[in-house]
Amino acid sequence: MVGKFFIAMLLLSAFSSSALGKAGGGPTPGQVRAAVKRAEHSRQLWATINICNTQAYPDRIGIRGQMPALGFPARLTMSIQVDYWVAAAKAFKPVPGSNARAVAPLGTVVNGLQQGGHTFHFKPGAGLLSGTITFRWLRMGKVIGQISKQATGGHHRVDRGDPPHHSAATCTIP
Description:
By secondary structure, the chain is α+β, with helices and mostly antiparallel strands. It has helices at about 1-20, 30-40; strands spanning about 45-50, 60-70, 75-85, 90-95, 100-110, 115-120, 125-140, 140-150, 170-174.
């Protein structure tokens, strides 16, 4: 009985290793590149404004993002920054200072979609704001994929919004 159990576990281990790629149980470099490319171009990868100067969150902007896992263990992080509208440049620029930046570590994940975000407080009169998230996938301490996305609206299933599921590209704090 013990022998059959041992053989079954050995076969399961061998199958899992070959399914993931090379003998060490991890994906091959080609599998890593393909998974990162899929994630970076996924419709499920987005940044949005989920809170904007509401009664419950006055003078605050919430920036939230969603990113897909790669199908093998990778550490996922989001670097979030608030952007402000510069009329002369007709563009959003990063708000200077560390109080307009945050990092949302999502942990080591294998499958699924992960959301994270941060809520920032501003003084009244901050004006038209948006946000940018830089999404990173890391493996063995090295960045294997990275892409930045400007906030857009219309996303579904946005967590922790006010109102629930709120998704916008910009926020005004008058």
